[in-house]
């Protein structure tokens, strides 16, 4: 099974955050829905899922037909989602269900767990036309300088000034 990490970045390279004053770009959200629907699933961290649920996009609404896996050690059940205790457990579940591709959808903590554990095959970064101050970062190791080559597969202009970068990760 192929694992794709999907994320929006700010133009200055942060892992983009959103707020009522700085909502996610529609073009980036539409792109997320396209990839999640094509894969039939997505994996999220517990905090991101709770944020999605609060805005009507959790385990129901537009994603009601998808296999949603929430990674959490602290909760046992959430409506419309399957709980996994670790990134690997989330992948094992989707593999058992016969999925060919897993979409890892957010947030920073969970993305960094997948990246540091070497569980990602491809990256989709949508670079939004916004600059942020102090913020979140995606990293393969939070404590040490390391690097890993990635191979550019494709670029796309999604509209609204959002640029998509699609990479393969050498594992
Ligand atoms: N740029 C984007 O594409 C994008 C998209 C959506 C959200 N966001 C931003 O992301 C931020 C939210 O992300 P976040 O980092 O705060 O939270 P998160 O990654 O969504 O959720 C964190 C929680 O997930 C669980 N978790 C994470 N790693 C785990 C592991 N290795 N094993 C078991 N459980 C694990 C833990 O849940 P428990 O505490 O329950 O154990 C942890 O508290 C917000 O600022 C939001 O704006 C950005």
TrEMBL record:
<dbReference type="Pfam" id="PF01872">
    <property type="entry name" value="RibD_C"/>
</dbReference>
<dbReference type="InterPro" id="IPR002734">
    <property type="entry name" value="RibDG_C"/>
</dbReference>
<feature type="domain" description="Bacterial bifunctional deaminase-reductase C-terminal">
    <location>
        <begin position="24"/>
        <end position="145"/>
    </location>
</feature>
<protein>
    <submittedName>
        <fullName>Dihydrofolate reductase</fullName>
    </submittedName>
</protein>
<dbReference type="GO" id="GO:0009231">
    <property type="term" value="P:riboflavin biosynthetic process"/>
</dbReference>
<dbReference type="InterPro" id="IPR024072">
    <property type="entry name" value="DHFR-like_dom_sf"/>
</dbReference>
<dbReference type="GO" id="GO:0008703">
    <property type="term" value="F:5-amino-6-(5-phosphoribosylamino)uracil reductase activity"/>
</dbReference>
